[in-house]
Amino acid sequence: MADSRTVMPRHPLPWAWIGMAAAVIPLLLVLASGLRRDPRALPSPLVGRLAPPFDLQLFSGGRLRSAELRGRLVVLNFWASWCVPACTDEAPALQTIWEKYRAKGVTVVGVNIQDREAPARAFIQRFGQTFPAGVDPRGLISIDYGVYGVPETYVIDRSGRTVYKYAGAVSEDLLAPVMAPLLKTR
Amino acid sequence: MIRQNLLLAAWMLALTLIASGQEVDPRVRLIASKLRCPVCQNESVADSQSELSAQMRTLIRDRLAAGETEDQIVGYFVSRYGEWILLEPPRQGVLWLVWLAPAVALLGGAALVIAYLRRSVRPRAH
Question: Is the peptide bond before A151 cis (omega within 30 degrees of 0)?
Answer without folding.
Answer: yes
